Amino acid sequence: MLPEKLRSIFRTGNGPVSSVRPVQGAVPPLRKAGKREPPATRQSRGLEQFFFSIRDVIGLSVLDCAGANQDNIDFLIDLGHKVYTQDLVRSIDEAFGIELAEQANASRIEYFLKQNFDYPSNTFDGVLMWDSLQFMSPALLNATVERLYDVMRPNAYLLAFFTAEERAVNVPSYSFRIGDNKTVVVTDRGMRPAGQVFNNRNLERLFGKFESVKFFLTRENLREIIVRR
């Protein structure tokens, strides 16, 4: 439990907002790809750039989509920021189940957006999306990015990870824990279907309304991107 003095600057979830119910039995076990690897610590140029971009400023509002991860919460609060959390990958499963085709359902897209991004315009100075966007098919992805544009403030920054294997049908899913301002601890969550093909060109098009998109390619075949609103 967070200390009493910090509870006022930590938020998680948005409460019931829609008559659309989660898909019954929608949270499947993640696809397995043999023996899962133990947690690994690695350098992240994207994370380093994210924190460099918001350096020397306190009191920012940051949305962390890795779920209520205590290490991430503590790290961001120690920097003096307000923290909001969502477990976006779990929310995808709850709203749509395992079928990518369900992600084109307009009522379920709206339910998903209200469950995860029901915030006033210009709320966030930073968003840590991690790898969640790569599990969205085009209709859901476009709607999510549009909503992110609305809830982010001008000059806010977003960090996201995508597989660099453009023809991959299934890609690894990870949970992410911040080690420090340029390292991340990744834990294997199994394989999941990729929502679509991702490359630099279509990612630039996806974030076309934003001010800029910067790419970093890692040794783990992850494409890290920093997007400025």
Short description:
The chain is an alpha/beta fold and 229 residues long. It is built from 6 helices and 10 strands, in the order ββαβαβααβαβββαββ. The protein has one domain: Vaccinia Virus protein VP39 (Rossmann fold).
How would you describe the overall organization of this protein?
There is one protein chain. Helix content is 26%, strand content 30%. By secondary structure, it is α/β, with parallel strands linked by helices. It has one domain: Vaccinia Virus protein VP39 (Rossmann fold, 3-Layer(aba) Sandwich). It has helices at residues 45-53, 70-78, 88-96, 106-117, 138-151, 200-206, and strands at residues 10-12, 40-43, 61-64, 82-85, 124-130, 152-163, 170-180, 183-193, 212-217, 222-228. Strand 9 (212-217) and strand 10 form a beta hairpin. The radius of gyration is 17 Å and the shape is globular. The strands form two sheets. It has a seven-stranded mixed β-sheet, with helices on both faces. Helix 3 (88-96) runs antiparallel to helix 4 (106-117).
